[in-house]
Each structure stands twice: as C-alpha cells, then as structure tokens.
Here is the input.
Amino acid sequence: MKKVLFVLPSHDKLGDTGQKTGYWLEEFASPYYEFVDNGYDVVIASPKGGKPPVDPKSLQPENQSESTKRLQNDLVVKQQLENTLILNEISDGEYDTLFLPGGHGPMWDLSQDKDLKRIVESFYNNKKIISAVCHGPAGLLQATDYNGNSILKDKRVTGFTNDEEHTVKLDKTVPFLLEDKMKELGGNFEKTENFKPFIVTDGQIITGQNPASSLLAARRVVEVLK
Here is the structure.
C-alpha cells in the first residue's frame, strides 16, 4: 500500500484583519478521497499537531463539493483531522509522496517551518513526487537541492496567482505574493484564467493553481505513481 503524507497549516490568523484562516476544505477533501479510493494510506500532519484550523469561508455552502459532503459523514477522516501528527515527529522515509493543500494558512507557517523544509528536501533528494496546490506551494519555498539552489529553480510551476489574490482582496494582507516569490526563486511560473483548473508537472514536482485544481493534482500523482 502506497503512503501519502498530507501537511496542513497550524496558523489560523488572517494577518491583521481579525479574521480566521487555515486550510481550504475542498483542497484537502477531494485529494484525500482520490488517494484513499486508489488504495493509498493517508497520514496527516501539521506543525503543531492536533486539530489544524480550517478556513471558515471554505465551509460556506457555495464552496462545498461531493468530497466535502462525503467528509461530513466520514468518522475516520474526522478523527484524523482531530489528531494530526506533529511535523517534527515525521519520519519522511515512510512515505511515497507528499501533498500540500492550500488555504491562506500555509503563507504564514508552512512557508517558514524548518521541519517541513527538512521533509520537502528529503522527498526531493530521494526523487519522490511532491505536489502542492493553491497556496500549498508556500511550503516548498525554503527547500533547496544539494547545490543550495531552490528546488523550484528552472522548474515549470504554478500556484495562487497575484491576480487571484487581488480578486479576493487579500493581496495587501498576505505576507508576500506567492507568484512573485516563486518567480524570485527562479521558477518558470505558468497560469491560466482566474479560478480555473490548471496543473503543471515538471519532473517530480506537481503544482496546481487554485482550489479548482486540487483534484487534478491528486489524480496526476496517482497516474505518475501507478
């Protein structure tokens, strides 16, 4: 049985807005069930362990899907989400692939977490598939290869775009713009229309642009690892 490690944020404050953030439910739910339905063992971790915060906006009716509705009645995944493992206890050698869902939370903690840096670099250096969607690629920004270069350098990548951030009116709230940061690190950033499904594969790195891209990214991982 193949094993996939999901990493969710522990950060729950949306900058100085007084609002809450976290991971985006659909970006977790659809990939989760894509892996489970294909026979994967899914393990969930977060920087602080325990119950990671979910973005309240992702719970609104207009943001629900078949997968999020399925999750509501799934006691197994609910139990997992109440008791995620602590990142610093993760032995990355146990896993076949890594998946980073988005939501704005990763922009604050996963972008700086040293345990995630260690894990991403280990996956990368051991030629394992790494996938991240929407703001999830923030968790890849610190990682470097054996030569000290960003793992994104000269790679075709995507993520939540500057224009999408502007559209949701959070471009002045986030600590940085993900598209700009990925370009600064040498990534060859690609994108499509706002909020349309779009994924990019370059070697072992698979990235998705936005929430609508999360299922496609997970499907690509499953295809690659067959």
